[in-house]
């Protein structure tokens, strides 16, 4: 059943026109939010590097408390649920702090290749590096609204630091990964 089956035929086109117009605006707003988030993460990465260089703590709870008060007041003025504004902020800040902790953590030797790890009993028995939460990782503690189907995300899709590129996303078992054809260049 399509969404417009219950609408009288003479109204259906007008309703669909309205729906499409609203959805275009939604798509524009979503695009703007992604760009704004990317800019925010560029700034917070700079803050993270500064903190790492000067041995400052990854998080600043006092600053966050002031930001939350400000955002809640802004939300009220904008007729947005202040509790939602606070949850959104906590979600973003948890990711920022995770980045800051990583920036402050000295890089370790790369993990051995899986074949080598399996062939070496000691290596096979050793816990996987970086498998658990790092100190200061608060992402798991951020409670999202029940309808927000967003798991704590790592790596961050808007992470834009070329020094810390995102690894390739995991491919689910059995899923076909498209392979670029070396012989047929795309048009
Ligand atoms: C960006 C900073 O680091 C953390 C992240 C914040 C944020 O994303 O707004 C705020 C405070 C800090 O916990 C900062 O200290 O300014």
UniProtKB/TrEMBL annotation:
GO terms for molecular function: chorismate mutase activity. Transmembrane segments: none annotated. Keywords: Isomerase. It comes from the Bacteria. Residues 124-187 are annotated as: Disordered. One of its GO terms (biological process) is chorismate metabolic process. InterPro entries: Chorismate_II_sf, Chorismate_mutase-related, CM_bact, CM_dom_sf, CM_II_prokaryot. Gene3D superfamilies: Chorismate mutase. Residues 13-104 form the Chorismate mutase domain. This is Monofunctional chorismate mutase.
């Amino acid at each position: 059943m399509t969404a417009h089956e219950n609408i009288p035929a003479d109204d259906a086109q007008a309703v669909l026109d309205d729906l499409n117009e609203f959805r275009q605006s939604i798509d524009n707003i979503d695009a703007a939010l992604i760009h704004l988030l990317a800019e925010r993460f560029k700034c917070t990465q700079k803050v993270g590097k500064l903190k790492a260089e000067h041995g400052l703590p990854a998080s600043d709870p006092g600053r966050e408390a002031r930001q939350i008060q400000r955002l809640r007041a802004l939300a009220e003025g904008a007729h947005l649920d202040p509790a939602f504004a606070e949850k959104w902020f906590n979600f973003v800040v948890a990711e920022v702090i995770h980045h800051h902790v990583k920036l402050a953590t000295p890089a370790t030797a790369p993990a051995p290749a899986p074949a080598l790890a399996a062939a070496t009993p000691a290596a096979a028995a050793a816990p996987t590096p970086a498998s658990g939460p790092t100190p200061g990782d608060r992402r798991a503690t951020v409670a999202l609204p029940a309808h927000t189907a967003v798991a704590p995300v790592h790596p961050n899709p808007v992470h834009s630091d070329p020094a810390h590129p995102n690894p390739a996303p995991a491919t689910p078992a059995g899923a076909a990964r498209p392979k670029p054809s070396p012989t047929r260049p795309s048009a």
